[in-house]
Every structure is written in structure tokens, then in C-alpha cells.
Amino acid sequence: MSGLRPYLPLIILVGILVVVLGTGLFLITAGKGIGQFFFGRTYAESELKDYVATVLKENLRGASCQPFDTDDNGYVSCDYTVSAQPGITRSIECAAFGIGGFINRGCRTRLPNFQTN
């Protein structure tokens, strides 16, 4: 034990680093689990706000996004309204929290999910 004493701070630091990185990796790759449960809706709505402000150049009035990526395409469904047309609800898909969401950025129009044989 006395031979490891000089390395104790380094061992503790490496242990903490492993725990922090492991937890972060788990939350990102948890997919439909814990990561999307805690961060899914907030992450997608922030992507939507950026998209509406920068691409559409509109003022977002209201927004609601699903927290889970149910079809595993890296996007979640969102509905929103803009100040110029408050009575019209628009639909779009925005990047989901998780590996797919970090690869995908922003939003895109909804595409039908046709299954082919």
C-alpha cells in the first residue's frame, strides 16, 4: 500500500474521470431511455428555436416537441406557431438528443416513413 501512496491522487483523478465520461456516454447513448427522458424535449425545442429564427427568420410563438425518437432516424416531431400566423400550427422534425441528434443538427420537414419490402 505504501508503494501506491504517491500515485493516490492520480488514481483518484483517473477514477473520477472514468465515472464522469462513463455517465456522459451512457446518457448520450441511452437512446430512448434516460438521456431522452431528461433532455429530449428541451434539446429538440432549442434546435427548433434556432431553426425558426435563422432559417425561417420568424418569431416563434409556441413550440412543442416529442422527447423520444421513436423511429430511430435522429429526429423528433415538433409542432410550432409563429407570431405572424398564430392560428396556423406547423409540423417539422428537429434533431433528437442522443448520438443521432449530435450527428443531425437543426430541423427538417417531415418525410413520410414508407416501409418497402
Please, could you describe this protein's structure?
The chain is an alpha+beta fold and 117 residues long. It has one domain (9-108). It is 43% helix and 23% strand. The chain has three helices and four strands; from the N terminus they run H-H-E-E-E-H-E. It has helices at 8-29, 34-56, 99-103; strands at 60-65, 75-82, 85-95, 107-108. Strands 1-2-3-4 form a four-stranded antiparallel beta sheet. The protein starts with 7 loop residues before the first helix and ends in a 9-residue tail after the last strand. The model has no long low-confidence stretch (mean pLDDT 81). Keywords: Membrane, Transmembrane, Transmembrane helix. The chain crosses the membrane at residues 6-28.
Oligomer: single chain
Alpha-beta classification: alpha+beta
Tell me the number of strands.
4
Largest sheet: 4 strands, antiparallel
Task: Report how far the terminal alpha carbons are from each other.
Answer: 64 Å
How much is the average pLDDT?
81
Number of domains: 1
The coarse overall form would be: elongated
Radius of gyration: 20 Å
| Arrangement of strands in the largest sheet | 1-2-3-4
Order of helices and strands: HHEEEHE
Point out poorly predicted stretches.
none
Report the β-strand fraction as a percent range.
15-25%
Kindly state the percentage of residues in helix: 40-55%
Number of helices: 3
Topology:
Elements (H helix, E strand, L loop, with lengths): L7 H22 L4 H23 L3 E6 L9 E8 L2 E11 L3 H5 L3 E2 L9
Antiparallel strand pairs: 1-2, 2-3, 3-4
Keywords: Membrane, Transmembrane, Transmembrane helix
